[in-house]
Amino acid sequence: MSQIEGRRPVLEALRAGRDLDEIWIARGARIAGPLADIVAEAERSGVSVVRVERERVDSRALTAAPQGVIAFAPSFAYASIEDALERPRVAREPALLLALDGVTDPHNVGALARSAEAAGAHAILLPRRRSAGITPTVEKAAAGALAHLPIVEVPNMARALSDLQDRGIWVVVLDADAATDVDALDLATEPLCLVVGSEGRGVSRLIIDTADAACRVPLRGKVGSLNASVAGAVALFAVVRKRTQAT
User: Fold this and answer.
1) Is the dihedral of CA 213, 217, 219, 222 positive or negative?
2) Domain ranges for the chain
């Protein structure tokens, strides 16, 4: 059993047809805006909506701000790599995947998922270890993106990336020490998987050594680095911009 907390994540889960068992809405919350949409979508989907005391919602919540709504669902269903690669095939566009190497902060994982979905990425790869899994905090930070974006959990990231290379997908790491700015990345228009690492260690040396290319987000100010979720978002949209210019 998993929980989805927050108005936007619950609404997007309903709109995407995700299997939900029940939705709690805090008693006294005004049914307007997103809450009204949740009630309407739940009725259309046949999902039970239960009004409970706000204290009960808050005590059950696993995030700091559930916004008076919690949806209960079966455990999060990870996608397969075949599922992920089917999406660009159907759309007839080059694959754009995001791999997270050692990103353990659930807020960063959720924020990266939100950016990836907004950028039109086809899937995210997460390692089974040394990474934040899909938790209510991740779902909340993703603001509904996980209802639309396949998440692939891989037992070994280096092996998974090598398999992608064998399938004709270029692996590009985001590395602050790279010589190439992401805006000048020639591979942007090709099928690619962008790898983002943790703030402290970055992408692992093994993956950097086996990647096809590396790029960096150019910094012009005094700050020496960006948060992983910000850097990943900037890089994703730089790739999207180059693809748009090429069409």
Assistant:
1) negative
2) 2-73, 81-246
Report the pLDDT value the prediction gives residue 50, as an integer from 0 to 100. Answer: 96
Q: What is the rounded distance in angstroms from the CA atom of residue 98 to the CA atom of residue 111?
A: 12
For residues 169 and 88, give the distance between their C-alpha atoms in angstroms, rounded to a whole number.
Answer: 12
CATH homologous superfamily of 2-73 equals Ribosomal protein L30/S12 (3.30.1330.30)
Token code pair at residue 240: 């999207």
pTM: 0.84
Q: Residue 61, SS3? A: coil
Task: Provide the 10 A C-beta neighbour count for residue 117.
Answer: 21
Residue 191: how many other CB atoms lie within 10 Å = 18
Of the pLDDT bands very low, low, confident and very high (cuts 50, 70, 90), residue 214 is very high
Q: How far is CA 38 from the centre of its chain?
A: 22
CATH of domain 81-246: 3.40.1280.10
Instruction: Let me know if 38 is exposed, middle or buried by CB neighbors in 10 A (0-12, 13-18, 19+).
Output: buried
99 C-beta neighbours (distance < 10 Å), count: 26
